[in-house]
Amino acid sequence: MTKTIRLTMTQALVRYLSNQFTVIDGSKVPLFAGVFAIFGHGNVTCLSEALEAAQDMLPTWRGQNEQSMALAAIGFAKAKRRRQIMIAATSIGPGALNMVTAAGVAHSNRLPVLMIAGDTFVSRRPDPVMQQVEHFGDPTINVNDAFKAVTRYWDRIVHPEQIISSLPQAVAVLLDPADCGPAFIALPQDMQEVAWNYPESFFEPTVHAIPRPRPDRARLDEAVRLLKTAKRPLIISGGGARYSGAEAALAKFAEARGIPLAETIAGKGTVTHDHPAHVGPIGIVGSTSANALAGEADVILAVGTRLMDFTTGSWSAFSPDAKFVSINAARWDATKHRALAVVGDALEAINEVEAALGDWKADSRWTEKGKVEFAKWNTALDGFQKPTNDPVPTYAQVVGVVNSKAGERDLLITAAGGLPGEVMKNWRVKEPNTFDCEFGFSCMGYEIAAGWGAAMADPTRTPIVMIGDGTYMMMNSDVYSSVLAGHKMILIVCDNGGYAVINRLQNAKGGASFNNMIKDCRVKEPFSVDFAKHAEAMGALTRRVESLADLGQAVEWAKGTDRTTVITIVSDGYTWTPGDAWWDVGVPQVSERAEVREAHSAQAEGRKRQRIGV
């Protein structure tokens, strides 16, 4: 006879999640490290009761905003390289909808986070309940259905027994390298309270291992044959290489075979800046070195990248005749643009390719070209970062100073605005896996929240978060969260007077400056926020600096403080580091502005260089 234990559905859910484990670096740890939660009427009476009882095994952290706490969970998962997961729990209505943006971040970046939201009543007896959005033609729909577009797994529990089948499926998605992304579970209020006789075996401790699917042998042999024909091969390392733990193998492979290695935004930090095969970041926010090699490469080995437009220069960065070999755990990503798809784990695939190549190496002249181009790029970076007598420093100069003061293991975090391009180009990675630029969704507001999550993930290193004034104004409440929780980050706020990089794009495509820089908005008068005072009001230590020398001293001071520390500096919103590839954006075909008409003609010319594919 099956032994059972009588629990409410939410008590059973929490007990199950608390008994899932994984192994990281030889140590058994909880698979779910904790919960970020904001309680409301849809989850406070039942889910919170279950979480309170389990808080020693599954700690709960109070967020300030549902979106930011889910972003913190994503920052945690990134810092853990998808090996450990956080939960984000919210009530129904606005709280749940606030998390949709974060679900989009996790979905586009292939990152695991478990989202749990309250829901309306299955019985519908009290309908419409507070915060219920009713659909007149379909009463089964509410705001939680919005998550279906941005999650890998979605379920609504309408009977307490359903979690027995649902929760293992959610965990499987969170751990699947090919299908990894956010999982969402809706908990109707009347179902949360219902007790059920659950089998005790459902709660047995389970240790999970992330699978490493190896590639098909015939497809791998075909990839090796193609690679051996290459005269000018190029490796593009993406985030999947890092999540696979393939950094050391890929670094060794590139150096031994003489293949230049470029990095995507998610892949930056696969190797150190000074690795012998490294040629810099590629694409729209890339380097002249990597982009020059991409234009000449005949075979591109893409490892763990979804080949987004910022990597490919909207598919204009490569020769029309270039061949792609795409190693990816996800079939969808591996098959893009007529690539030879090698579907499997990056580490397994790289090791098998290495073993099958025999004594093949890239032409030494091509290898040397990579070194020469990268040396030119480094010389250019030195020039961009060199201090001048200009009263307002550039992004390149600010990034250079912060980079010079960062420790080898300090984690750099940014996401949106002008900083992604500037740190991609100017930040010289000192140790693998110390760089996090969220650009799959380019979510303004990710940065500070991710700093909190990353600090929680690894208390032995300090996240350095770099943001602009626009991002700070959009979402800053987790400065307070990190102070409350005791998870320190160093936050650098570059105040350039508005949304400067979008103003740059607006101007570059012929548009007048409009509604981006504060001075160009409909305001009574331009006003500059004192970010240092604002952050100080949330409990952070702060310093406002006026020069690059002061910035360097402030970063050194911040590294020795005992809590989140915020440094603000006015920066130039009009000077940018060059090196970009072409980007395809819509430009009006008809306009009264001559600059726009000229930009449209230039855009049409650029589209002639695009590689046609699917």
TrEMBL record:
Pull one GO CC term from this UniProt entry. Answer: acetolactate synthase complex
Please list the residue ranges annotated as the Thiamine pyrophosphate enzyme TPP-binding domain: 417-568
**Thiamine pyrophosphate enzyme N-terminal TPP-binding domain location:** 35-131
What EC class is this? Answer: hydrolase
Which Pfam families does the record match to this protein? TPP_enzyme_C (PF02775), TPP_enzyme_M (PF00205), TPP_enzyme_N (PF02776)
Q: Which controlled-vocabulary keywords does the entry list?
A: Hydrolase, Thiamine pyrophosphate
Per UniProt, residues of the Thiamine pyrophosphate enzyme central domain are: 220-352
Keyword Zinc present in the record's keywords: the answer is no
User: Member of which family?
Assistant: Belongs to the TPP enzyme family.
Q: What is this protein called?
A: 3D-(3,5/4)-trihydroxycyclohexane-1,2-dione acylhydrolase (Decyclizing)
Upper lineage ranks? Bacteria, Pseudomonadati, Pseudomonadota, Alphaproteobacteria, Hyphomicrobiales
Which gene is the coding source of this polypeptide chain? Answer: iolD
